[in-house]
Amino acid sequence: MTTQTKTASRNIKREFIPRMIKELQKRFGPGAKPRCFRAPGRVDWLGSHTDYNQGLILASTVDREIVVAARLRSDRALNFYSLNLEQEVRTSLDKNAPDPAHGFANYPKGVIFEMLQAGIQIPGIDMVFYGNIPIGANLSSSAAIEAATIEALLGLLDRPMTHWEKAFICWRAENRFVGMPCGILDQFSIINCQKNCVLFLDCDRLASELIPFSFDQYYLLVIDSGVGRQLVKSEYKKRVQECRAAFNALRKAGYNISSLSAIQPHQLKEIEPELEPLLFKRVRHIVTENQRVAAARKVVSRKNFEKLGKLFEQGYLSSSRDYENSCPELDILHDLLANAPGVLGTRIAGAGWGGCLVSIVKKTDWRQIQARVKKPYAQKTQRELRFFPVQTGQEPGEIL
Ligand code: GLA
Fold it and tell me: What local confidence, expressed as pLDDT, does residue 386 receive?
């Protein structure tokens, strides 16, 4: 077995924690002993852009995490440091606005201000973050920072909160404070999913199920295309608007629906003349993607990896053709993977427009897969791939 195929956790080594605590004390001075909290990243299995359309999602945590060392202060100072980015941000509770210069710190700040909005009294705080969730790899390092922050605040304040409340505070931090109009997928799955489980979420009924699961001889392999995600914010906003426009047009045409996810697959033909072709494509993606999630929910519990791989492939096609959240490099990478032995199926991870693909692969084959696609991809795109095999990860909590 190679090191990459071992099932050992990829969590940050606990020996690293004293270094985080020392760093916090060195930077922000004497005070109470910091405590450490963690949150995993997430990977979406199916349900691309369905969350803000009140649709269905299948996702899990990953065995990579963000750790935060934190302590409360007696003044109103908010001090943050990222060991990965070597960036320090000093601000205060009196500066209640995002600041582009604050970079990563806008996420914990957003959570703090949303907690204040929810009526929770918070004093100043010192926080040092460290993580091994690759940035920009669609494993949601930002939602993991938010989840680690809320765990830390609630732990330090000794205050209980339901998973739903936590997820919504983090989601509001991202939407209202950071300004990314995302759905609930990232925050909900990180806060609610557990190790050896896959989460099924119905964003309309707000009902979820944890499906017990183990990978056995398979992995999810996340492959970073090396294409930055500069387009994500603007394209994502555009898709949210297009879905809203399609919804309004259908309502106007007499369809008494509460969201696009209320459209049934057999209605697609009938609604086509009511929509501009582009909007129809967006709707077709959402409707068929919901159908794929419902099918995947069944095959996951039966561990039918072949069928899951096929659903991944259909999802990719729909994303690329109808939702248009792929890009030329992702299409090249997808085609290379489709021809590699050991790959059961591949789809776009997270938002798309660059970033990563995620494949279901045989554990024993992943090195050959890497060797097979790396070079031709580099020749065609002049970009280098990064590979991250992932398993499910532990839910957020304190590191004791
Ligand atoms: C991003 C957003 C999620 C979801 C996905 C696409 O990750 O944060 O809310 O919309 O894109 O499924």
Answer: 93
Q: Residue 9: what pLDDT?
A: 63
The neighbouring-strand residues paired with 58 are: 46, 200
**What pLDDT, on the 0 to 100 scale, is given for residue 234?**
84
Active site (catalytic) residues? 186
Residues 6+ apart with CB under 8 A from 251: 257
CA of 142 to the centre of ligand 1 (A): 12
For residue 333, the 8-state DSSP code is: H
Burial class, 192, CB count within 10 angstroms (exposed 0-12 / middle 13-18 / buried 19+): buried
Taking the C-alpha atoms of residue 48 and residue 318, their distance in angstroms, rounded to an integer, is: 10
Taking the complete model, does pTM exceed 0.85, yes or no?
A: yes
Q: Kindly report the CA angle at 26 between 22 and 32, in degrees rounded to 5? A: 70
Q: Which residues of the chain fall below pLDDT 50?
A: 1-7
CA 232, 102, 145: angle at the middle one, nearest 5? Answer: 65
- What single string gives the DSSP state of each residue in 63-91? EEEEEEEEEE-SSSEEEEEETTTTEEEEE
DSSP letters for 179-202: -----SHHHHHHHH--TTEEEEEE
Q: Could you tell which of 53, 135, 186 is best to mutate to test the pocket of ligand 1, judged by most ligand atoms within 8 Å of the CB?
A: 186
What mean pLDDT, rounded, does the chain reach?
A: 93
- Looking from the CA of residue 47, the nearest atom of ligand 1 is 12
Q: In the structure encoding, which two tokens stand for residue 380, read together?
A: 């065609």
52 CA: nearest ligand 1 atom: 10
